[in-house]
Amino acid sequence: MNLPQELIDFLPCRTPDAWVDQALAHPEELLIDHANCEKKAASTALNLMFRYIDKPVLLQKMSRLAREELRHFEQVTALMQKRGVVYRGLSASHYAQRLRQHVRTVEPGRLVDTLIVGAFIEARSCERFACLAPHLDAELGDFYRSLLKSEARHYQDYLGLARQFAEGPIDDRIALFAQLEGQAVMENDTEFRFHSGALDAPAKNAAGTAL
Question: What's the CA angle centered on 100, arms 41 and 125, to 5 degrees?
Fold first, then answer.
């Protein structure tokens, strides 16, 4: 799948093939956690709207983003229902927390960093949709391809807002979160999630079966 070169350059690394293998091995968890991610993305946009009511440009972009994310949530859950996948609770991956724990606490740094983190989350989501689409059935593959344009725009919106509201250059903050994001993608995780890192392979005995 073709992605904008600027998005590829923005991300510190590509998603490992091992993650794609795990996604294909966990089709229900993939859809459930994808729905969760869309819901969380809408919540993030709404929270920014309530927190920064004095920024008209942010309010407009986040309002549109929240509507799109909720529409995606509706589409994912409709696909789940069609496929007999029951929406249930899943523990969150550590990906977003690994980034957000480094967000500054004083404004405007807090807003700028939050927006940069949002840009990385949206860019990684877009990249993972592109990684997955060729390996999925026609219906789901086409759906994931249909999300690429909006996810790429969301990444651009977040990054553009971060530059707009910063008091100076933000290249150093982008570089910091790029390093953290790359580590999160390669970090060992014990459960598959849409934004999980590399999963620990189960140990095997001499006969080659999992212990």
Answer: 40
CA distance 99 to 205: 36
CB 129 within 8 A of CB 151: yes
pLDDT of residue 56: 98
At which residue do the structure tokens 């977003």 appear?
96
Q: What is the mean pLDDT of residues 114-130?
A: 97
CATH of the domain at 179: 1.20.1260.10
- Note whether residue 186 is domain-resident: yes
Q: What are phi and psi of 39, to 5 degrees?
A: -65, -40
pLDDT at 209 over 60: no
Residue 210's pLDDT band, with cuts at 50, 70 and 90, is very low
Quote the number of domains for the chain.
1
Question: Distance between CA 83 and CA 98 in Å, rounded?
Answer: 33
Structural domain including 33 reads: 26-87+105-195
Q: Give the Cα separation of 45 and 60 in Å (integer).
A: 10
In a domain? residue 201? no
Q: Please say if the pLDDT value at position 42 is more than 60.
A: yes
- Return mean pLDDT, the chain: 92
Quick check: 1 pLDDT over 70? no
Domain membership flag for residue 1: no
- The DSSP code for 200 is P
